[in-house]
Design brief:
Number of domains: 2
Number of helices: 2
CATH topology of the largest domain: Jelly Rolls
Largest sheet: 5 strands, mixed
Strand order of the largest sheet: 2-4-10-6-8
Radius of gyration: 18 Å
Distance between the termini: 58 Å
Strand content: 35-45%
Number of strands: 11
Oligomer: single chain
Structural class: alpha+beta
Low-confidence stretches: 32-45, 52-68
Length: about 190
């Protein structure tokens, strides 16, 4: 085995090991986070047009984020609730999901930025439970937000009461991990 080939193999093994450690630490960190109660107001929106999804090959899951909350009184201000503020690694041909629940119509806002691979790109979606089931099975689905394949993006949408999923899809990438910083909150 030549020196450069051995070095390339060593680099690949180290990268895979580092990726596994990052994923483990992110899962541990997310298990320890506390969650603010969901609060928002407004009228129910209509879903955005249908989006396309690649076939699922792998999925990382988190527990849904929800907390029982008494409705606010008229004098209480509308509070922000953080859905996610983290940096996550998304493996090639896979996706990362963040489930969240809101008890009333809510504005969902945030920002994301991807790094890794040749294009530094990721696809971000927000969809409901039916849309997520269709996404996992590689079918067309309705979403409340769809970024397309981009490096950075702003999220501004409104969702009705229910359970939703923020999806970071790297299914278009055959070999490159993507590291994505994601900050999303509800109002």
């Amino acid at each position: 085995m030549t020196g450069s080939r051995a070095f390339t193999i060593l680099q690949t093994v180290l990268l895979l090991g580092l990726t596994a450690v990052v994923i483990f630490l992110l899962i541990e960190r997310n298990d320890k986070k506390s969650v603010s109660p969901p609060v928002a107001s407004g009228n129910a929106p209509s879903p955005a047009p249908a989006l396309q999804s690649p076939k699922q090959e792998q999925a990382k899951q988190q527990q849904p984020i929800s907390a029982p909350v008494a409705p606010p009184s008229v004098s209480e201000p509308v509070l922000e609730r953080t859905i996610v503020d983290d940096t996550v690694a998304v493996a090639p041909r896979s996706y990362y999901q963040v489930p969240f629940t809101v008890s009333r119509v809510s504005a969902v806002e945030g920002r994301f930025e991807a790094q890794g691979g040749r294009g530094n790109d990721i696809s971000v979606f927000i969809t409901d439970e039916d849309g997520f089931t269709n996404f996992k099975n590689g079918h067309q689905f309705n979403g409340y937000y769809g970024s397309g394949k981009v490096t950075v993006g702003e999220i501004k949408t409104t969702v009705p009461a229910g359970t939703f999923y923020v999806i970071l899809s790297n299914q278009h990438s055959l070999i490159s991990n993507k590291v994505v910083h994601l900050t999303i909150h509800t109002k």
